[in-house]
Amino acid sequence: MKAHVSSILLGVRDMEAAKRFYVEGLGWKVQNDFGISVFFESDGASPVGFYSREGLARQVGTDQEGSGFSGLVLTYVVRSEERVDEVMAEAQKAGAKILKPAGALPWGGYGGTFADPDGYVWSLGYSDQGTDQPYAE
User: Fold this and answer.
1) In angstroms, rounded to a whole number, what is the distance separating the alpha carbons of residues 13 and 19?
2) How many angstroms separate the CA atoms of 54 and 57, rounded?
3) What is the DSSP letter of 131?
4) Would you give the DSSP letter of residue 118?
5) Handedness of CA 97, 17, 121, 132 (dihedral sign)
6) What is the pLDDT along the chain (137 residues), one digit of tens a residue?
7) What number of other Cβ atoms are within 10 A of residue 38's Cβ?
8) From start to end of the chain, where are the E strands?
9) Cα dihedral sign for 66, 67, 71, 73?
């Protein structure tokens, strides 16, 4: 198996609320809305989509009622500290819960984290240390 993710599906409790958060709040563009699932334009990266939490759990054969930290963090790397601050502000305005405000990181970078309305954790970051980082923008 290659180190590759073909798509990322997030199980959401309220499809319309999730779409509002990402579309109106963060400016994502819907590529396909199939009713039971929604996929966003990915700009060449792995596509990100939503599926109902109950339906996705049933599809993969697990219980939808998990609790606490799942061990999954979605990472978004940008090209400046200013852009980290901008995205954090966009997310907060859209209804995200700020888990860790943007600031200096122990390894020398700059970043912060937030949780979307379904609790998915997004880690935003910037570092001037590397030149071959997988920049989101």
Assistant:
1) 11
2) 5
3) S
4) T
5) negative
6) 677 777 898 999 999 999 999 999 999 999 999 888 899 998 888 889 998 888 888 776 777 777 667 778 898 989 999 999 999 999 999 999 999 999 998 778 899 999 999 989 999 999 887 677 777 88
7) 24
8) 8-12, 30-33, 37-40, 48-52, 73-77, 97-104, 110-115, 121-126
9) positive
